[in-house]
Amino acid sequence: MHGVIRDKATARGAGGYALLLITALAILGVLSVTSIAIGSRSVPLSEVVRILTDPQMTGVSAEAVRLRIPRMALGILVGMALATAGTLLQGMTRNPLADPSILGLNGGAAFAIVLSMATVGLNAPIQYVWVGMLGSCAAAICVWFLGSIGAKGATPLKMTLAGAVVAAMLSSLTSAILLPRIDVISSYRFWQVGGLSGARFSLMLPILPIIGIGIGIAALCLPGLNALAMGDDLATGLGSRVRTVRFGAWAAAVMLSASATALAGPIAFVGLVVPHAARLLVGSEYKRILGLSLVLGPILLVTSDTIGRVLTRPTDVEVGIVTAIIGAPCFILLVRSRRLQQI
C-alpha cells in the first residue's frame, strides 16, 4: 500500500507539488489564527482581528491574544527546525527511524543545558544554544561510535539501538543532577517536557539566525542526500562527496535540534513523523520532502499546542506531551512496517 502511495506521489508533477504546498501553507495559516483565538479563554475571530489591527486596545482578551502570538511563532520556528533535522538525519543515515530524539541529540542538548543550569547558573536561551550544541555533538559522536562497533559497521538497527541507549543514559544522568537540586527542579520541569508557554520574541530573535543557517545548509545538502539514497558506492560514482554531505547534514541537524531544544525543551517525535508524512505525499526526492516538512512540522506543533490548551482548561498540557501521544502510535506503525522488518 505504501509503495502504491509512494509511486503515485513520485509521479506527482511540479504543478501538483506546488498545489500541495500552497494547500499546506493555507492550512498552517488557518491553524495559526485558530491557535491565537482558542485557549483557556477563547476570543471570537472578529475580536482577534480588532486586537491585531489596534495596538491601543486593552483588556483581558487583548492580553490573551498578544501572549499567544509569540507562542504561535515559536511553534512554527521549532516545528521547522525539528522537521528539517529529522529529514537530514533520515537521509544521511538512510535510517527510517532516525530523528533528533531517538538518536540522542535532544537528550545530549538537554543534559548539557541542565548541567550548565545546575553548575554555573546559565539561564538565558542564547546561552543554552551553544551549550546544547556541545551536548548534541558529544551525543552524536557517542551514538556513531557505539553504532559502528562490529563487523558490519554502522547499520540502521545498530544506530537506532545505540541512540536509545545513549538517550536513556543521558536521561538518567539528567535526573541524577536534578535530584539533589530541588531549587532548579521547579524551573526545569516545564522545560523538560517541552513547552511553548515561555515564548517571547526577545528570546527567539538571537536564535533565529542559527536556525536560518541550519536550514540553509540543509538546502545545500539536498542533492547529496538524493545521491546517498542510492548507496555510498553509487553516490561516489556519480560524483557526490559523501563525507562532505554527511558532515554538512550532521552539522545542520545538530544546530537545528540544539536550537529547538534550547527554546522549547526536548520535544520528541516531530523529526520522526513529519519527514515520513512528507515522503508519503511527495515521494522520495529530498528537495520536495524538505519543502513540505518545513510546513508540516509547524502544522504539527501549532496543532498540538492548541490541543494541549483546550484539553484541560484552564491549565495547559505542554506541547511535548501532546506530540508524544501523537507520535508514539506512528512510531509503532513504522516499526511494524514491512520495510523496517527487513533491516
Short description:
This protein is an all-alpha fold. It is 77% helix and 0% strand.
Principal-axis shape equals globular
> Strand share of the residues?
under 5%
Task: Give the count of helical stretches.
Answer: 16
Radius of gyration using CA atoms only: 20 Å
| Largest sheet, strands/sense/barrel | none
Distance between the termini: 19 Å
Topology as a string of helices (H) and strands (E) = HHHHHHHHHHHHHHHH
Query: Helix/strand/pairing class, anyone?
Result: mainly alpha
Overall pLDDT score: 81
Helix proportion range:
over 70%
Poorly predicted ranges: 1-7
How many β-strand stretches? Answer: 0
Keywords:
343 residues; mainly alpha; 77% helix; disordered N terminus
Task: Describe the protein in words.
The protein is an all-alpha fold. The protein has helices at about 1-10, 15-35, 45-55, 60-95, 105-120, 125-150, 155-180, 180-190, 200-205, 210-230, 230-235, 240-265, 270-280, 285-310, 320-335, 340. Helix 3 (about 45-55) crosses helix 4 (about 60-95). The longest helix has about 35 residues, at about 60-95. The radius of gyration is 20 Å and the shape is globular. Residues about 1-5 have low confidence and may be disordered.
